[in-house]
Protein backbone atom coordinates (compact mmCIF):
# COMPACT_ATOMS: atom_id res chain seq x y z
CA UNK A 1 0.00 0.00 0.00
CA UNK A 2 1.33 3.41 -0.87
CA UNK A 3 0.76 6.50 1.24
CA UNK A 4 -1.97 8.92 0.28
CA UNK A 5 -5.29 10.58 0.99
CA UNK A 6 -8.47 11.64 -0.75
CA UNK A 7 -11.45 13.75 0.18
CA UNK A 8 -14.48 11.62 1.03
CA UNK A 9 -17.66 12.19 -0.96
CA UNK A 10 -21.19 12.40 0.42
CA UNK A 11 -20.24 14.25 3.62
CA UNK A 12 -22.76 17.07 4.05
CA UNK A 13 -22.03 20.21 6.11
CA UNK A 14 -18.65 18.75 7.03
CA UNK A 15 -15.56 17.54 5.21
CA UNK A 16 -14.04 14.10 5.38
CA UNK A 17 -10.83 12.47 4.27
CA UNK A 18 -9.65 8.93 3.86
CA UNK A 19 -5.91 8.44 4.37
CA UNK A 20 -3.67 5.41 4.10
CA UNK A 21 -0.09 4.27 4.48
CA UNK A 22 2.08 1.24 4.99
CA UNK A 23 2.56 2.10 8.68
CA UNK A 24 0.57 3.90 11.35
CA UNK A 25 2.98 6.85 11.12
CA UNK A 26 2.54 7.08 7.34
CA UNK A 27 -1.26 6.94 7.66
CA UNK A 28 -1.24 9.67 10.36
CA UNK A 29 1.00 11.78 8.14
CA UNK A 30 -1.34 11.26 5.17
CA UNK A 31 -4.31 12.28 7.35
CA UNK A 32 -2.44 15.47 8.30
CA UNK A 33 -1.65 16.16 4.64
CA UNK A 34 -5.34 15.69 3.83
CA UNK A 35 -6.26 18.22 6.51
CA UNK A 36 -3.63 20.63 5.18
CA UNK A 37 -5.16 20.35 1.70
CA UNK A 38 -8.53 21.34 3.18
CA UNK A 39 -7.14 24.33 5.11
CA UNK A 40 -5.63 26.18 2.15
CA UNK A 41 -3.96 25.91 -1.22
CA UNK A 42 -0.32 26.73 -0.60
CA UNK A 43 2.06 26.48 -3.55
CA UNK A 44 5.25 24.52 -2.81
CA UNK A 45 7.43 27.60 -3.44
CA UNK A 46 5.56 29.49 -0.68
CA UNK A 47 6.36 26.90 1.97
CA UNK A 48 8.96 28.62 4.09
CA UNK A 49 11.38 27.64 6.74
CA UNK A 50 9.07 28.43 9.66
CA UNK A 51 9.14 25.06 11.46
CA UNK A 52 6.83 24.39 14.38
CA UNK A 53 7.19 21.37 16.68
CA UNK A 54 4.03 19.56 17.77
CA UNK A 55 3.71 16.90 20.46
CA UNK A 56 0.52 15.19 21.60
CA UNK A 57 -0.03 12.31 23.95
CA UNK A 58 -2.80 9.74 24.34
CA UNK A 59 -2.93 6.03 25.04
CA UNK A 60 -5.64 5.41 22.43
CA UNK A 61 -4.90 5.76 18.70
CA UNK A 62 -8.23 7.43 17.79
CA UNK A 63 -7.74 10.09 20.48
CA UNK A 64 -4.10 10.54 19.50
CA UNK A 65 -5.14 11.20 15.89
CA UNK A 66 -7.93 13.64 16.80
CA UNK A 67 -5.67 15.53 19.23
CA UNK A 68 -2.93 15.75 16.59
CA UNK A 69 -5.22 17.02 13.84
CA UNK A 70 -6.87 19.51 16.19
CA UNK A 71 -3.44 20.78 17.20
CA UNK A 72 -2.74 21.53 13.53
CA UNK A 73 -6.05 23.42 13.29
CA UNK A 74 -5.24 25.28 16.51
CA UNK A 75 -1.96 26.62 15.03
CA UNK A 76 -3.93 29.05 12.89
CA UNK A 77 -6.15 30.22 15.74
CA UNK A 78 -3.42 30.54 18.35
CA UNK A 79 -0.38 31.55 16.33
CA UNK A 80 -1.70 32.78 12.98
CA UNK A 81 0.11 29.98 11.14
CA UNK A 82 -1.30 27.60 8.56
CA UNK A 83 0.39 24.19 8.37
CA UNK A 84 1.81 23.70 4.89
CA UNK A 85 4.02 20.60 4.99
CA UNK A 86 4.84 17.83 7.44
CA UNK A 87 8.61 17.75 7.87
CA UNK A 88 8.82 14.77 10.23
CA UNK A 89 6.35 12.64 12.14
CA UNK A 90 6.94 9.74 14.46
CA UNK A 91 4.97 7.87 17.09
CA UNK A 92 6.69 6.43 20.13
CA UNK A 93 4.47 4.69 22.64
CA UNK A 94 1.59 7.03 23.44
CA UNK A 95 3.42 10.11 22.11
CA UNK A 96 3.23 11.64 18.65
CA UNK A 97 5.99 14.06 17.67
CA UNK A 98 5.89 16.15 14.52
CA UNK A 99 7.62 19.10 12.91
CA UNK A 100 5.56 21.16 10.50
CA UNK A 101 6.49 23.86 8.03
CA UNK A 102 3.96 26.69 8.28
CA UNK A 103 3.10 29.93 6.49
CA UNK A 104 1.57 33.06 8.02
CA UNK A 105 -2.22 32.92 7.69
CA UNK A 106 -2.41 36.50 6.46
CA UNK A 107 -0.17 35.61 3.50
CA UNK A 108 -2.61 33.04 2.08
CA UNK A 109 -5.34 34.03 -0.37
CA UNK A 110 -8.64 33.86 1.58
CA UNK A 111 -10.39 32.48 -1.52
CA UNK A 112 -8.31 29.28 -1.25
CA UNK A 113 -8.96 28.75 2.46
CA UNK A 114 -11.51 26.63 4.31
CA UNK A 115 -12.33 27.32 7.94
CA UNK A 116 -11.97 23.92 9.60
CA UNK A 117 -13.21 23.99 13.20
CA UNK A 118 -12.20 20.55 14.45
CA UNK A 119 -11.47 16.91 13.75
CA UNK A 120 -14.31 14.82 15.14
CA UNK A 121 -14.84 11.32 16.49
CA UNK A 122 -17.96 10.95 14.33
CA UNK A 123 -17.30 8.24 11.76
CA UNK A 124 -13.64 8.02 12.81
CA UNK A 125 -11.95 4.80 11.69
CA UNK A 126 -8.41 3.53 12.03
CA UNK A 127 -8.08 0.10 10.47
CA UNK A 128 -4.98 -2.03 10.38
CA UNK A 129 -5.20 -3.98 7.16
CA UNK A 130 -3.07 -6.74 5.71
CA UNK A 131 -1.13 -4.29 3.55
CA UNK A 132 -1.14 -1.18 5.78
CA UNK A 133 -3.32 1.24 7.70
CA UNK A 134 -6.44 3.08 6.53
CA UNK A 135 -7.96 6.10 8.32
CA UNK A 136 -11.28 7.89 7.85
CA UNK A 137 -11.87 11.18 9.65
CA UNK A 138 -14.58 13.83 9.42
CA UNK A 139 -13.93 17.50 10.15
CA UNK A 140 -16.41 20.07 11.38
CA UNK A 141 -16.24 23.04 8.99
Question: What would you say this structure looks like, in words?
Answer:
The protein is an alpha+beta fold and 141 residues long. It has one domain (4-140): Archease, Possible Chaperone, Chain: A, domain 1 (3-Layer(bab) Sandwich), CATH 3.55.10. The chain is built from 2 helices and 8 strands; from the N terminus they run ββαβαβββββ. The protein has helices spanning 24-39, 61-79; strands spanning 4-7, 14-21, 51-57, 81-92, 95-104, 118-119, 125-129, 132-140. Strands 1, 2, 6, 7 and 8 form a 5-stranded antiparallel sheet that branches. The chain has a 3-stranded antiparallel sheet with strand order 3-5-4, with helices on one face. It is globular and about 40 Å long. The protein starts with a strand and ends with a strand. The model has no long low-confidence stretch (mean pLDDT 91).
Amino acid sequence: MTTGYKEMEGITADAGIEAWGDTMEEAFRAAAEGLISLLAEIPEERVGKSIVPVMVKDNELPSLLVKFLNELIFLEEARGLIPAKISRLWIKGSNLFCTIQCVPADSVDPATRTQVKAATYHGLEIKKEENGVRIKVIFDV
